[in-house]
Structure formats: structure tokens, C-alpha cells
């Protein structure tokens, strides 16, 4: 197949910026990256609020480099609808493709490098290069759990527990709002022969499960497993010639807010987190709207995350999920059907199908939309809404549709 | 309290598991002196977290680590029954990990733990104040109920 030339002359570089190159580590890679970014933005003559795409990176992310989240927050940028960490030449082309694809209008590419200690004996003698090198060697990062309690939440899941607590306080909701997600997902897993946990649970069992990090207990958490899944994607044109019934990516967006680089407690509020950004940016790109959605897959690393995705998607207003879930509960099936129309997490989710980072929501959607979900097939489904990701970094909202 | 300056090398050796760098060095030197220092932009006045080397609001590089008052309220928290280890704590009683919203600025948050305050007494909105304990051989910030 000949390479496409649709992109020719369609993307331009309009600003550049660079810091001095030094042997000594006079500033962190992040500080250098931010400085270069500001210079490029000034060179381009644009307002920082025009930027809605970021590619951050180089290999220094783990050592405090200018990853896309740090760039967003350190520059006080607005909402971002396309983001990536990449390096070498790829970072520029990914960014160009994203602009050509319409994922963002104006994108910043930032890269920073440092002198590695293994490259140079004299680098080893630089106090800060040495510590950064040690951190790289041990796998520690600026978000180390042991060294500083104040940095703990980037390396543990406790922030989701606290946000769940904050939600229940602000909106006067009981733990049952989270429990209904857990029971729904387990019910669906019981129907899915591929699921790891298939024994149904009751609300009583959910409420009395062993407490892990209050208010979250054992049945609020995803289920670690060893597994792998894969997908092949191609153009719609080529897909028409292939054997399987295509499932199209109809609309999508990333979402990110300036709250999650390393201090996850810093999000302004329950609704100022990434799922809201992703959904808000995705819906205008979609001909299919929420009333047309047959299946919904909200990421359930922990129950409060699925709760946030439910509200961010627009199935209900913030704080109203308990009312929604109660009015959507099917007693005879022991699971949710949102608004009487939309089944949720038909594979059982991360909590009961198994922890695959939400990737299994994609493959479950494909099975359902092809009509190949066997015993747990929902008849006649044609559209699927996925919200996959954390409150903080790289979440996506997407609508998939059957051919 | 020592009056001699704590050297950079000492800060690094006292926090072997933390990626100390030029952006956060003064914050950790402050902790060793029982001071909670948070960057404050000298041009626009915003308090800046985490330890960004410049101000996200006005882009000035004139940010200075500044001591906070130590006053705040509990924004949210989790009582941890099991989890990543915390020096000098076991989980025989759940450990409160709290987000304090510091009085200096709305949305300025700091993660810490509580002392001298029973878990059952904690509530969102509780006024708290900074105190100093010890963790892993270093001075460590913690909070207790204000006025108690």
C-alpha cells in the first residue's frame, strides 16, 4: 500500500526555543524544558491558551524531566486534548499527525536531555547528576513512596480513596453508590467465561469486605492477573477488505488537567479531573450522542474512578450517580442498565474480568459490536462508550461503532 | 537547633530515597530545620506546588521557598489499613493520610499525617495546625487538630 500523501504541506513549525548547552547540571531537565518551551511560545507569538496538544519527553521523564503533564502544569496551560511522551524524531511526527488528524490545533513539543552518569566519570562527581543517576538505577522517581510522605500519593492508590470520601461528603452519598458498581461488574463477570472472578456478590458482602484504605475495601479494587491482549488497527478503507467485521473508532479524545503531575491531591475539585476534560472534548466530535449509547465502559481501577466516568460522560449531573444507579438497577438481573438503555462493563471490568488497564474494555466492545460475545452477548448493540484512565493522566473517551 | 548551614551533601544523605534536585533542594533543607517551605512567586504572589522552578501563573522564575503559617483544614483523607510502608508506623491502627488545604491559598494542598488526634475525630473541614515529629531519623511535618 503506497504511503499516504494527505499530510503534505498540511502542518507547519511556527516557533522555536532553546536553552544554552552546559556540561554542569545547572538546572533540572524540567526547568530547562520549561524555559525552552516559553522561548518557543514567545517566538511563535501565540497565547499559551492556544496550546491544546503536548508532546513531552526524552528519556528523562523518570528523573524529573519535562513530561507532558509536568509541562502542562509548570506552564499553567489550559485543557489538553492530545498528549504524548516520546523522543527522538518520533515526537515531532506524532505531533504533526495529531494536528493533521484534528486531535489538537496547536501543539507544543518539548524535549530535554541530561548527561548520564554512566557516560562520564566527571558526571558522576556532580552531586545532582549522581543522585539522578542513582534514582534511575533504583527505579525511584521524584514520586518515591518511602522518602517523603508528602509525595506518597503518586505511588499509591490512596488518592482515589480520599476523592471517594470527598465525593460522599460533598454530595451526601452513601458507600452503596460505589457498591453498586462493584456488584454490577461482578454480575457481568459471572456471565463472562473469560473472567477471573465469577462468583456473584451481594451489597452486604461489598459493605463488609475487608477495609484496605478507607473508604475503599477489597471489593472496590481491581483484580491483578497475568494476562495479555492485543488489537490490530488499520484504515477504514483497508478494513473493508478484511475478514472481520470492522469496529470503527467514531470519536475520541484524550483529557488532562493541571492537577496530576506528582501531587494528586491537587486537583481543584471532583469535576476538575481528566475524565471531564476527555468527555467534554469527545462529544462534539461524535455524531452518536449519549442517548444513542448501547454499552458503557467506565474504567474501574477503583470504584470511585468508574463513578467519575459515569458522571463525566453525562449520564447524570455531578453528585447524582446514586439516584441514577438506583433508578437504573434491574432487580431480576442484578445489574445496571443506565437510563433503561445502557448496560455497563459487560465483561466484568478490571474488578472482576481482571486488571488489564482497561484494554479489555476495547476488546469486549469489539466482541459485543461484532455480535461475537457468546453467552454474555447483549442483543442488537451497535454503539459503545469507553472512558478509560485515571483522574490525572492520559485518560481517553471514545465512542466505538459497529459496521 | 544547629546554626551552621546544612550542606547540599547533607540534605542528599539525609534523604537517600528522594530524588533531590535543584528544584526541591531548599524544601528538603527546610524540613531538616523544621520549616515547611513552599515556593511562592515574588512577582504575582501565588503559592506554587509542587516545586516548580517557575510560576505556572505568571511564568516568573522569581519563586522563593517561603515558610507557611502551618494553619489549614482537612480537605480529604484516607485511613490506611494496609499499604506502602511508612517509617516508624505499623498498620495495627489505620494510619491517617490527610490532604491539608493550607490557609495561604485556596487549592494549596499538602499531604501529611496526623498526630495526637484520634482517627474517629477526623472530619472534612477540621481546622488543623502543623507540628513537628520525627520519621526515619529526620524531622517530619505532621498535623494535629487546631485548638486542641
Give a quick rundown of the structure.
The complex is a heterodimer of chains A (403) and B (148). With 403 residues, chain A is of the alpha/beta class. Chain A contains 14 helices and twelve strands.
What composes the largest sheet of chain A?
Answer: 7 strands, mixed
* Overall strand count of chain B: 8
**Average pLDDT over all residues of chain B:** 93
Weakly predicted, low-confidence segments of chain B: none
- Arithmetic mean pLDDT of chain A: 86
* pLDDT < 50 runs, ≥5 residues of chain A: 138-144
Q: How do the helices and strands follow one another from N- to C-terminus of chain A?
A: HEHEHEHHHHHEEHEHEHHEEEHHEE
Helix content of chain A: 25-40%
| Total number of beta strands of chain A | 12
Report the sheet-strand fraction of chain A. Answer: 5-15%
User: How do the strands of the widest beta sheet of chain B line up side by side?
Assistant: 6-5-4-7-8
End-to-end separation of chain B: 26 Å
This entry's quaternary arrangement is heterodimer
* Side-by-side strand order of the widest sheet of chain A: 6-12-11-7-10-9-8
What would your notes on this structure say?
The complex is a heterodimer of chains A (403) and B (148). By secondary structure, chain A is of the alpha/beta class. Chain A has 14 helices and 12 strands. In chain A, helix 7 (176-190) crosses helix 12. Chain B has a 5-stranded antiparallel β-sheet, with no helix packed on it. With 148 residues, chain B is mostly beta strands. The two termini of chain B are 26 Å apart. The mean pLDDT of chain B is 93. Classes of the chains: A alpha/beta (403), B mainly beta (148). At the A-B interface, helix 1, helix 5, helix 6 and strand 4 of A face helix 1, strand 4 and strand 6 of B.
